[in-house]
């Protein structure tokens, strides 16, 4: 299963944009064009599945800050709309989820003034050209398709800030929704890693088998130890570290109560530098390596500006990591770096998507309104 399309409307700089997506998706562009809003839209879909949509919007400053600030058509409601499509290549089944959120009506008593109110949600299953609505939410009421094919009311109402999809995620009565939610919940988003003196990357962590890297990188040492001890194979990791860090060697001690790691540098062969001693760039590259080479890969890995703090010579090795991860995961990369975008293009045979501002809104250069690009017709 993979994410095949994303539609986002009236969210920050995203006026109305739809994108059809591939196995590796690279978005490159200047500061201020809205690249990170595309990344954030995906995060908010996951937040809806996890029941944290309202909280995540509140963290951004509430609905007034999150809503599209440009002009709207007459009578067009002020609503953020996200829609995603997941395709299962083995079964030919598509899952489609859509959520709409708006402000609390002036006369309403329920809810807080600037928290998002979920106005509508839909979940459909599509086979070929035929689409079947499985769940529809309007206000507080939820309708579910039953065994006999009829839409019937769900027994529990939702609060105005709750998502129906999160309420139904573990319900045995909606297995398609449960499958969709399990898949989306496994996505991983890496928006930079702290490298200050108190960063969790610089500290040992509990020696617990860790097949996936936490989004803050706090279990990085355990991820490395899992590759070393459980898989017994760090060939790809060792090659990436040597290529990016001038022949350096990653040192992974046998874990005890804690797991840790260090670097052995060619010019100081008798000295192992601990994580606390590494430069910001060295540490950030190691964290990216942990994210992209972990024992078990998530179905989607999203990287936002992964080139930050990296020396330019680390970008080609990073592109190698991205290409390697793409064998097992769908990858989404947002970057300022033309060099990184071109390196990924060479390794993965894709065309980076250039993000621009068009009439004040975020857009993909050359993209049709359907979400496709003319180059796609040629199979490029």
TrEMBL record:
Residues 24-340 form the ATPase AAA-type core domain. Gene3D superfamilies: P-loop containing nucleotide triphosphate hydrolases (3.40.50.300). It comes from the Bacteria. Pfam families: AAA_21. InterPro entries: ATPase_AAA_core, P-loop_NTPase, RecF-like. PANTHER family: DNA REPLICATION AND REPAIR PROTEIN RECF, SLR1056 PROTEIN. This is AAA family ATPase. It comes from Rhizobium oryzicola.
């Amino acid at each position: 299963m993979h994410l095949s399309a994303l539609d986002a409307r009236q969210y920050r700089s995203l006026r109305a944009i739809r994108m059809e997506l591939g196995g590796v998706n690279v978005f490159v562009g200047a500061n201020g064009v809205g690249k990170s809003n595309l990344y954030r839209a995906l995060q908010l879909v996951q937040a809806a599945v996890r029941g944290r949509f309202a909280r995540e919007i509140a963290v951004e400053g509430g609905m007034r800050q999150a809503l599209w600030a440009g002009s709207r058509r007459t009578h067009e409601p002020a609503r953020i709309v996200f829609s995603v499509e997941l395709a299962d290549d083995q079964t030919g089944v598509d899952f489609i989820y859509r959520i709409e959120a708006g402000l609390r009506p002036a006369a309403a008593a329920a809810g807080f003034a600037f928290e998002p109110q979920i106005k509508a949600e839909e979940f459909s299953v599509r086979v070929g050209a035929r689409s079947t609505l499985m769940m529809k939410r309007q206000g507080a009421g939820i309708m579910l398709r039953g065994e006999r094919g009829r839409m019937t009311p769900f027994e529990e109402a939702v609060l105005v800030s709750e998502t129906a999809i999160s309420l139904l995620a573990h319900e045995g009565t909606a297995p398609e929704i449960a499958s969709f939610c399990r898949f989306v919940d496994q996505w991983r988003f890496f928006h930079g890693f702290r490298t200050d003196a108190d960063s969790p990357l610089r500290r040992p962590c509990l020696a617990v088998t860790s097949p996936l890297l936490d989004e803050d990188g706090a279990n990085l040492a355990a991820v490395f130890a899992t590759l070393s001890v459980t898989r017994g194979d760090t060939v790809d990791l060792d090659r990436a570290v040597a290529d990016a860090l001038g022949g350096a060697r990653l040192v992974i001690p046998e874990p005890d109560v804690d797991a840790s790691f260090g670097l052995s540098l060619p010019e100081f062969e008798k000295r192992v530098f601990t994580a606390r001693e590494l430069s910001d760039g060295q540490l950030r590259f190691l964290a990216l390596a942990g994210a992209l080479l972990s024992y078990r890969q998530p179905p989607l890995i999203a990287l936002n500006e992964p080139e930050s703090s990296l020396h330019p010579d680390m970008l080609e090795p990073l592109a190698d990591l991205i290409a390697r991860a793409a064998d097992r995961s769908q990858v989404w990369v947002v970057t300022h770096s033309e060099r990184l975008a071109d390196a990924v293009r060479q390794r993965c045979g894709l065309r980076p998507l250039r993000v621009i501002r068009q009439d004040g809104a975020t857009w993909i250069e050359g993209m049709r309104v359907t979400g496709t690009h003319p180059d796609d017709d040629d199979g490029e």
